[in-house]
Design goal:
Two copies of one chain form a homodimer. Chain A has 18 helices and 20 strands. Chain A has helices at residues 20-38, 50-57, 72-88, 92-108, 117-121, 131-134, 136-154, 158-173, 189-200, 203-215, 222-227, 263-279, 283-299, 331-348, 352-367, 411-420, 423-426, 559-562; strands at residues 12-14, 383-384, 427-430, 433-436, 442-448, 451-459, 466-484, 492-496, 499-501, 510-526, 531-535, 545-550, 553-558, 569-571, 577-582, 589-599, 610-611, 617-626, 638-639, 642-644. The longest helix of chain A has 19 residues, at 20-38. The radius of gyration of chain A is 25 Å and the shape is globular. At the A-B interface, helix 13, strand 11 and strand 17 of A face helix 13, strand 11 and strand 17 of B.
Chain lengths: 646, 646
């Protein structure tokens, strides 16, 4: 199938007012910080033991395995993040660090290609016998992704060779002859196998990924059968009462129509379905992707681009069940959503997928990391009352403060690899065309009809709607430039070299320029006024409330700006909003102020809980800041959905 | 201390329009139904095995223990309910059933007095070695309560003797010499020991109960030490990460100022603190009761008189954290609240305690049982969206439909004993006076200054505010009659034999008549118009919402009367409310109708989740029925706190 291609990271250079602070963190803070953690060199954070596990598995040291069964994946994600970083910003010292750790990984690999320190050290006899919980295939997938990324960044193929050996073993172990029923309990290896196929051309990996997908949901359920085997023992207490929908094995993937179960598992699976569907031009599989995407983003997604609303099991629940102060909304699930959306845009060439990708990246993914890069949110609530987030209660998973590091360390390295690969989200290409999907100041070199063309985006988006795209092609060449017109842009202008163009947007949501690429400047001006958003009234939690957005950014109230008891504020939507850029807070950001009122609690005595008293209000100015920046100042309440003064 | 006394049940006869349907169920349905369950004679409900466990422990049959570690308590609560029922409604066949089962209990008792089928059958070597989870003392307490009640109802003391033997063993095992630190992981034996003291006069039981209370909270924490003993094994997975506040052992009880931990444990402990505090005239302990009561009812209680807002661990959280659609609010916790409130009223002689007792009984306790007596709620939400109550999610504990029987069967027998002992809640007495606390049509015989006096209450409360109290004393005698004026009664009149009296209410909240009891009729007329209630604005979940009450009854909207998406309704509090009695629904009840509007979801396309669309409304009449009756018709949504049309 003719899907759009991702332009390699080393062809893209980002220099953006909004994103630089985050991307800079990846190399300066997150990569070294996470390396220290993987090596247990940091005090006061949860012990990782990750590298040590590899040393023990490699027989370089004596000791016991420590950590989660999926601890290896932390190293894989770190390598992938480093690879993305090296692609745009070479660093011989860092590269040497990776080379050394790749050697270690090679040493930890068993003779037959098996690679997983937990099972190698602790339960060699139980390899692949607990697919439901074992995470061997999950870790394998992340290492395959890392191998592909590192090869693309550096041309070094040692990790690719290591992972080929493991992939070959997996293809044997899960071949039709040997185990024709098994598939992973946490999807990810399907993505990894696909990437390994991309860099090696080995179609066996592609076929294995497809088989894994198509086995899922077969009756009888593999995981339930596996549990009945003699000697089976659970790794997680909470899996004793296993729900087949948890890992999306309740139905064949082609027949799944609603987003169910653990949100990260779901998201990675949908990515693989899109990869495999496109690779085989499998209309049925791609149709399932569309149906699942639509269900997820039209009925089960927060305005911040997060998914998985249940605090228990980090899972999807049902249509429109979107509580704001007890949701899970894992950072990794939003990353998976962005990865899936980008694939759908590659396949369907429709801008609407990027409306969601952008929302997820600008809001939940960025909220996941502190402005100093040293602490992280797993859980991304839309409303926080710190006092209520008490251990061992229904809101204990909601943290009002980002955490330094977690025992289950999936989110921080996942954020790192996402930021390091941000370039891959901006552009897409095909032989005669280039697509601009995100408005991030950057320069890209790509090839159109055989000619190298350079494009440069210059903008202060999302704070400002003016976007300048400079085209520079030494040899003029005909082609097409597609520029995404976001769904939230109601009015815009387009100029080429100062000349106004028509502003008809295609049914695909892109503004298309059929042009000769030479030396031009295209200027877009998007209306980016703050917007008042309301949820579908079937979202019961949001009835009578509004949220404020500007471009893709959701705004929120924080206690530090507004005082306590934020739910007592009412926003006057009939008055205008004032927006200004404040250099002084949060490293410089847009701030929005609105008129409104607050229900007074001052007149209430502490002993009055329920009375016939009428509410009293006082006029207030409401101050809102971008959601990704919440929780970077004093600990306090936060609120996205604000009561509307009707 | 001179606390008010409870008038024995056999002196009270209830014949009440509102309550009879429930009380009738106890004898006709619940007692035989629960007996069948205890004997595993019912199909389609969870297996109890309770009687069978006793048979096995008694060596009458062979077999294995089955059920929860606290399964015995189901039988104890059943006996207590039967005892209360027999007190007002003798039944030789039923009494014979109890006598037989008491014989069985006696046979199941070990030589040294120990009584607990789980440990006798399964872990005889582990008696009293896991107080945190073992529930031996909890079951003992319930049997002591049952023994006292059965003795009072029938004069038969065999069960009292059985429980004395066990109590003596407990006093030995937990004496200063043998185990001076231990106390129960689930409070209840303190109440039981106190009742056993009441019927036997044995002060050793009183002293042991006091010791159990005063040991709680000592450092180091008993339960945490107990866990360190060799051979300790957990009975419950969720207790591995034990929080000492869970069973209120985080602080000495006298220093506890906020209601913490598991709500039923807390409530039973507060009852015991009141019992022991009064028995010893222990001002410090009674002060702690007042402080805990105030914290609980002024900051941590729902308008329906329910407590324990966390779905995880069924526990208290923090002040004003009262979510409506994910709360636990266990029926048993409201029963404990009523038991505690009655004790506080006995001690403090203040009507305000009964405002809460009445609220708990009329709303949450009754909501716990279906109108046919055959199904039950453990969890009592104030807002239900059936679609969202999905297994393995944050709302999985919320059931939109009452359940036939539970594996953990605490609530149904607890409701039964509460209904069967309702008479104990109506009146209180002391040597020269009688108190009327609840307005339930009934007749009571009591003794004032040595003379037998009869009082009769005749009313259609809570639907009607007229209450007639007829006094009949063959020998006129001077005394005092106290009638509670509920906090919600703003206007009322009092007549004696047709003559209007002043209506000054005392600072204790009672209307006091110093009178010669002879043959009089006192007529009260309470203003009981439906009221619009608002919560303290610190209850964030209720901001901008109102609840409707009439007398003690909370009203709610149900989908069957109003259609779906109840949170989209706005109540117009500026218009009046229409109230009428409808014979045709729910066996006859008051219905309230209010004007309002509904936010329309019809104009929204299924794919629109977040837009700039303005809300549209349509006028609606809102129909409300009493909260205790919810869920007795079609399964659907339910809502107590309704958005206010401001």
């Amino acid at each position: 199938m003719n899907k759009l291609t991702i332009i390699p990271l080393n062809k893209i250079e980002i220099k953006d007012n909004f994103w630089d602070r985050y991307i800079g963190l990846v190399k300066e803070v997150i990569i070294p910080y996470q390396w220290d953690i993987l090596n247990d060199r940091l005090e006061g954070v949860e012990t990782s033991h990750c590298i040590q596990n590899f040393r023990i598995a490699a027989r370089r040291e004596e000791g016991e395995f420590y950590g989660a069964v999926f601890q290896d994946s932390d190293l894989a994600k770190w390598i992938e993040a480093v690879a993305f970083s090296l692609a745009t910003s070479p660093d011989p010292d860092l590269e040497r660090q990776v080379d050394e750790v790749v050697d270690l990984i090679g040493d930890a690999q068993e003779e037959d290609g098996y690679l997983n320190t937990y099972f190698t050290i602790k339960e060699p006899e139980n390899r692949f016998r607990n697919l439901m919980e074992g995470h061997e295939l999950y870790c394998a997938g992340h290492f395959m992704e890392a191998a592909a990324a590192y090869y693309r960044a550096t041309g070094k193929d040692k990790l690719v060779h290591i992972m080929r050996r493991f992939a070959d073993l997996i293809c044997d172990e899960f071949s039709l002859e040997k185990n024709s029923k098994g598939y992973p309990g946490h999807q990810e290896v399907e993505i990894g196998l696909y990437k390994l196929y991309e860099v090696t051309g080995e179609t066996r990996y592609l076929e294995q990924a497809k088989m894994f997908l198509d086995r899922r949901g077969e009756k009888p359920n593999y995981f339930l059968e596996e549990k009945k085997q003699p000697g089976f023992k659970h790794l997680f207490d909470e899996f004793k009462n296993y729900d087949t929908a948890y890992a999306q094995s309740h139905l064949p993937v082609r027949r799944q129509e609603t987003a169910e179960g653990h949100a990260v598992r779901a998201g990675y699976m949908y990515c693989a379905m899109a990869d495999i569907g496109a690779a085989y031009d499998d209309a049925e599989l791609l149709k399932a992707c569309e149906v699942l995407w639509d269900n997820m983003v039209q009925k089960r997604m927060y305005i911040t681009g997060s998914v998985g609303s249940s605090g228990i099991l980090e899972r999807f629940t049902t249509d429109y069940d979107l509580p704001n102060n007890s949701n899970y909304s894992e950072t990794c699930a939003s990353i998976a959503l962005a990865l899936f959306g980008r694939r759908m845009a590659q396949i369907k060439k429709e801008a609407r997928y990027y409306d969601i990708v952008e929302k997820a990246l600008y809001n939940t993914v960025l909220a996941g990391i502190a402005l100093d890069g040293r602490s992280f949110f797993y859980v991304n609530p839309l409303e926080v009352w710190p006092d209520n987030c008490i251990p061992r209660t229904s809101k204990e998973h909601v943290k009002p403060v980002r955490q330094a590091w977690f025992g289950v360390a999936c989110c921080p390295p996942n954020i790192a690899r996402t930021l390091a690969s941000l370039g891959e989200y901006i552009y897409l290409a095909q032989q005669d065309a280039i697509w601009i999907n995100l408005f991030i100041s950057s320069r890209v070199r790509t090839v159109i009809q055989g000619q190298e063309v350079e494009l440069e985006i210059d903008t202060r988006f999302p704070y400002d709607g003016r976007i300048r795209v400079s085209v520079n092609s030494p040899v003029p060449v005909r082609g097409k430039l597609y520029i995404r017109i976001p769904e939230y842009v109601k009015e815009y202008t387009v100029h080429m070299d100062g000349r106004a163009l028509d502003t008809g947007v295609g049914s695909d949501g892109y503004y298309r320029l059929d042009m000769e690429f030479a030396s031009q400047t295209i200027t877009l001006c998007f209306g980016l006024e703050p917007r008042i958003i309301r949820a579908n009234p079937l979202v019961k939690e949001d009835i009578g409330k509004v949220a404020i957005m500007k471009g893709p950014l959701v705004f929120c109230m924080e206690e530090v700006d507004n005082g306590a008891n934020l739910p007592a504020y009412y926003l006057d939507t009939a008055s205008g909003m004032e927006e200004y850029y404040d250099e002084g807070i949060l490293g410089g950001t847009s701030v929005i102020r609105c008129k409104g009122k607050k229900m007074k609690s001052e007149g209430w005595e502490a002993k009055e809980l329920y009375t016939e008293k009428r509410p009293e209000f006082e006029e207030k100015l409401l101050t809102l800041v971008p959601y990704p920046y919440w929780g970077n100042r004093k600990t306090g309440e936060m609120l996205v959905w604000i009561r509307e003064q009707l």
